[in-house]
Design a protein that fits this description.
The complex is a heterodimer of chains A (about 260) and B (about 250).
Chain A: H1 2-12, H2 14-28, H3 38-57, H4 65-92, H5 94-97, H6 106-133, H7 144-168, H8 171-185, H9 201-206, H10 208-222, H11 228-252, H12 256-259
Helix pairs in contact in A: 2-6, 3-4, 3-6, 4-6, 4-7, 4-8, 4-10, 6-7, 7-10, 7-11
Chain B: E1 5-18, H1 26-34, E2 42-55, E3 59-63, H2 70-78, E4 85-90, E5 94-97, H3 110-120, H4 125-139, H5 154-167, E6 172-176, H6 184-199, E7 203-207, H7 211-217, E8 220-225, E9 228-234, H8 235-246
Classes of the chains: A mainly alpha (about 260), B alpha/beta (about 250).
Chain lengths: ~260, ~250
């Protein structure tokens, strides 16, 4: 009964969701000369920096290191930007929250979704790289949408919780950026997971992004099946995270306006 | 739960915590703690056990001096804030005009902002498409509609905001102190529109200090005094008593 209402209200406000996402994507580069082109340029330049720097400071013995890194870095980038903007989203929209009623969950949903769209656009870069490097595609790519879905749900769940908690404790936002920075190194993005000492391997096990990055890499780089038990665990886990996140958000949203 | 009830306020109380120099971060909290400066947050009872039934099609004015809780009651009806105790139910699509232009984006054009703003009120794209000409005409912005909102004068800004809010087809309209929009001509136009809405059976709740507007426009007045209902009834009777005390 309650679940039905959730979707019904979101459906009623679908136009708000759409315009919010559009605003998020277009507004970001509004006023800049190159406009929407930055959606491509930004990750491309970042990739260039990473691809240039890491082979020199880190010896990773794999073919096509650039592709090895890109297929992990682009999903990771989606994760960090979405979590970071999600965390601040409710506080930023504070002024509107004080004046108009609309389902509050629209805010974290639209930041996460706009980052998802940004991610899918950036994937075009990834496709170009994969084709021109000769790595190519295999049928394993059918798992790709599933991985994206799992990642989206986990990100959304985290955004629900973090955006709500940040309203009450603003420090969370700073804390999150540090944790994300640490997360970059606790995820096998620029290195092979086997390069990590035994005592740290546990971090890769409990870090869902590490598991997802490995799965992306299996599908796009090694042309292998992803680890199926991991897929099952995090497929289920992502649903739990999003539902729990939503419940917490709904509990906290009632006092948002008084704290903003 | 009668069918013709629009807003049902049931034993509602609302408390606000009063913060003196609110410590927002852990650092501040620790600092305040060490200074023994940690204020016991006082609790301010803004509304005390209010019960109120507003029927469909009624035009109700909430009157009272500053700080009597009128705006808080209106915000509770909008679901921007939630009651500490009690329940509020509203039946039908509700629009509130608490502050005009909430959610405008300065870099986008007037036309784009119509879409943003109307969608905040819960309209779908199709509904906005149907209404957009009416909204633009009502705002009298003409060609300016395709200019970014940041180039607007404050009068133009207000006119656009009001045109959107009033053309959103809601069954319940909550209006807080904002009828002083634009020049005489535009104000008159707004009131005509409100009368039209009233005639078509919409429920309207207004918070205002302008007693002339109340007398002209509303059927019923609710006088709030220090968070409680002092009087509730026909506009004439309530206004007479109110002016005796506050006039």
């Amino acid at each position: 009964m309650i679940r039905m209402n959730v979707f019904k209200e979101l459906y009623n406000y679908r136009e708000l969701l759409k315009t919010n996402i559009k605003k998020e994507i277009r507004g970001k580069y509004k006023g800049s000369w190159l406009g929407i082109l930055w959606t491509f340029l930004n990750p491309l330049l970042m990739l260039a920096v990473y691809a240039f720097v890491f082979p020199y400071i880190l010896r990773v013995d794999v073919d096509n290191y650039t592709i090895f890194m890109i297929v992990a870095l682009i999903p990771w980038n989606f994760f960090t930007t979405a979590v970071q903007t999600g965390t601040n989203s409710v506080v930023i929209e504070g002024n509107i929250l004080k004046k108009v009623y609309f389902p509050r969950e629209i805010i974290p949903i639209s930041t996460t979704t706009s980052q998802l769209i940004n991610f899918l656009i950036t994937c075009l870069i990834m496709v170009v790289f994969i084709i021109f490097s000769g790595v190519g595609f295999s049928w394993h790519i059918i798992f790709f949408p599933l991985l994206v879905l799992i990642q989206y749900l986990i990100t959304l769940g985290l955004s629900f919780v973090l955006s709500a908690v940040t309203v009450f404790v603003r420090d969370v936002s700073h804390f999150v950026s540090v944790v994300l920075m640490l997360g970059f190194y606790a995820t096998p993005i620029v290195y092979l997971s086997s390069m990590l000492p035994q005592k740290f391997q546990i971090f890769l096990k409990i870090n869902p992004m590490a598991q997802l990055v490995e799965a992306y890499r299996s599908v796009l780089y090694y042309h292998q099946l992803p680890d199926m038990t991991m897929l099952a665990i995090w497929g289920f886990g992502s649903i739990v995270i999003v539902v729990l996140g939503y419940i917490i958000f709904k509990k906290l949203e009632k006092s948002f306006v008084e704290e903003l | 739960m009668e069918k013709n009830t629009a807003i049902e306020v049931n034993h509602v109380s609302k408390d606000f915590k009063l913060y003196y120099d609110k410590a927002n971060t852990l650092k501040e909290k620790l600092l305040f703690f060490s200074k023994k400066n940690r204020d016991k947050n006082d609790i301010h009872h803004v509304l005390k056990d209010i019960s109120l039934d507003i029927k469909k099609g009624e035009s109700v004015a909430l009157i009272g001096t500053n700080g009597s809780g009128k705006s808080t009651l209106l915000k509770l009806m909008t679901k921007i804030i939630y009651p500490t105790k009690g329940k509020i139910h509203t039946y039908g699509k509700l629009t509130s005009l608490l502050e005009l232009g909430a959610g405008f984006h300065n870099d986008f054009t007037g036309r784009e902002n119509i879409y943003f703003n109307a969608s905040i009120f819960g309209l779908t794209r199709k509904e906005i498409d149907e209404k957009i000409d009416e909204i633009i005409n009502f705002s009298e912005l003409g060609d300016f509609i395709d200019n970014p909102v940041r180039t607007y004068s404050s009068g133009m800004y207000m006119r656009l905001a009001f045109s959107i809010a009033i053309n959103v087809q809601a069954e319940i309209l909550l209006i807080d102190e904002i009828l002083a929009v634009g020049d005489q001509h535009f104000q008159e136009k707004c009131f005509n529109k409100l009368r039209e809405l009233k005639k078509s059976g919409k429920t309207i709740v207004i918070v205002t200090h302008n007693m002339k507007q109340v007398e002209e426009f509303c059927d019923r007045a609710v006088w709030l005094y220090q968070g409680q209902i002092r009087m509730d009834g026909e506009v004439k009777d309530v206004l007479k008593e109110y002016l005796k005390v506050c006039g």
